Amino acid sequence: MPALKTSATVAVIGAGAMGAGIAQVAAQGGHPVKLYDARAGAAAHAVEGIDRQLGRLVEKGKLGAEAHAAIVDRLQPVESIEALADADLVIEAIVENLEVKRDLLRQLEALCSPDCILASNTSSLSITSLAAGLEHQGRMIGMHFFNPAPLMALVEIVSGLASDPVLVACLYETAKAWGKQPVHARSTPGFIVNRVARPFYAESLRLLHEGAADCATLDALIRDAGGFRMGAFELTDLIGHDVNYAVTCSVFDAYYGDFRFQPSLIQKELVDAGRLGRKSGFGFYDYTEGAQRPEPVELGSETHVDACVVEGSLGVAEPLVQRLAEVGVKVTRRDGDGLLRVGDAVLALTDGRLACQRASEDGLANLVLLDLALDYAKASRLGIAWAAGTCATARDQAVALLRRAGLKVSPLADIPGLVVLRTVAMLANEGADAVFQRVGSASDIDLAMRAGVNYPQGPLTWADAIGLPAVVAILHNLQAAYGEERYRPSLLLRRLGAEGRAFHERA
Ligand code: NAI
């Protein structure tokens, strides 16, 4: 089914942050839009706000004055729900409460024509349960925008058990016509983004809890090596710990306490203390006037190294070898198991085992483990960890080599999987399970994580690049190291890895 015609009337209920943004998107998409809020005057106030924001775009030359006037003309604040009777699509963005939303939907069903599509912007409620009280359940569909709706490209089009596939297709095309990047998601807790993103927060929180490094160092590694826009601590400080913790708890509860989604005690403590992040002036970081952001820890070295030996392939870390060669380090290649030797040190990409465990199991003296980088050719920082038996000279030689390549080197305690590789492996694991459980397709999951939360690469594409057998091995090693179910590899990841396949088969 094609997109709704621009002549179709869109009603948006709830004129808060999300409703106002969605109304703007629909009006920019060419529809007459009615905006309603239970609070008197709230809809008109929201339209004034949209008018002002678009006015700023006109001043910056990003929007024509005529287009601005036409968009605002199409936005009609209304003060009674009865005024929405002629709507072709209603999108509700009211308070996140199942009973309140159900009441509203029943009211709408009595009011609007049977052909009117009912959509919900809920981020955590089941579309199936929202539909349950309705006579025509097929018309109830999730349309989950991201904040701020006019700027964020992603819209999750969420199907409940009874959602009519024809109407689902219509909303998908409509979101596209509004300039958005829609993805299909089955109504399951967290849909795609709020589920697959959980390990991004959870792994950093756990690493902090276990003393792997401080917040500033962990954030810097996620940003400067992982290529994410923000680390987990600065991001949760921005989102608000009350909000982020509540989402984690709701997903954890919804999956019957699956330890994959276990909330963090240190985040709970922040919530208990009222340290909610930027909005309260304090979270993991201090936002009070004049407060200094702590610097990430970085290792220096006075040693000069001008040669190294590469044994076998470093796999996903191979571009590091090229980078070393480009700055004049003499690289000698020979057969082997993916090791990089400099002086007394042996460097290797982490495989999820502790450095001390791998040093003893593989008989590697002076072992230094390297973390993952999104792009080893461009990363500005890399995390390392070493076995307790690694001597200071070897450590220094390893640091000197990496610094020679222009990398800042941040030390980590000997923890399994380090920071970026562990986070990416767990994001890919969650994405894999979401594909396996038919929540969404691999390409929709990757698109959702790029367009909804700005990940530098879809987690499944990333897993393909690392190699699925390597990702499975990392997860197995993490699972063994912790003795916890949390790190169990998804069956789909294992199956594809064993079959020599990938999430995105090369053409
Ligand atoms: P908000 O609190 O800013 O706005 C909600 C608005 O709904 C308020 O203006 C309130 O007066 C109105 N309202 C409440 N009950 C009503 C009713 N029965 N009838 C008419 N109006 C009613 O909330 P926000 O943040 O805009 O969220 C709205 C919905 O969007 C929720 O379901 C939320 O889970 C979802 N969402 C929120 C995101 C966010 O980042 N804030 C992101 C994606 C979805």
Structure description:
The protein is of the alpha/beta class. It has 4 domains: 10-187, 3-Layer(aba) Sandwich (Rossmann fold); 195-273, N-(1-d-carboxylethyl)-l-norvaline Dehydrogenase, domain 2 (Orthogonal Bundle); 307-411, Transcription Regulator spoIIAA (2-Layer Sandwich), CATH 3.30.750; 421-497, N-(1-d-carboxylethyl)-l-norvaline Dehydrogenase, domain 2. The protein is built from 20 helices and 15 strands. The chain has helices at 17-28, 42-59, 65-74, 98-111, 127-131, 165-177, 193-196, 198-209, 215-224, 232-239, 241-254, 265-273, 319-326, 355-361, 392-404, 420-436, 442-453, 459-466, 468-482, 491-498; strands spanning 10-13, 33-36, 75-78, 89-92, 117-120, 140-145, 154-159, 181-186, 307-311, 330-334, 339-342, 345-349, 367-370, 381-386, 408-411. It has an 8-stranded mixed β-sheet, with helices on both faces. Helix 13 links the parallel strand 9 (307-311) and strand 10. Helix 16 (420-436) crosses helix 19 (468-482) and helix 19 (468-482) crosses helix 20. The radius of gyration is 26 Å and the shape is elongated.
How many β-strands, per DSSP?
Answer: 15
**CATH-defined topology of the largest domain:** Rossmann fold
Mean pLDDT: 97
The helix/strand class is alpha/beta
User: What shape does the CA trace take?
Assistant: elongated
Main sheet: strands, sense, barrel:
8 strands, mixed
Distance N terminus to C terminus?
29 Å
How many DSSP helices? 20
Please state the second-level CATH architecture of the largest domain.
3-Layer(aba) Sandwich
Low-confidence segments, given as residue ranges, are none
The percentage helix is 40-55%
Question: How much β-strand is present in the residues?
Answer: 5-15%
Number of domains: 4
Indicate the CATH class of the largest domain.
Alpha Beta
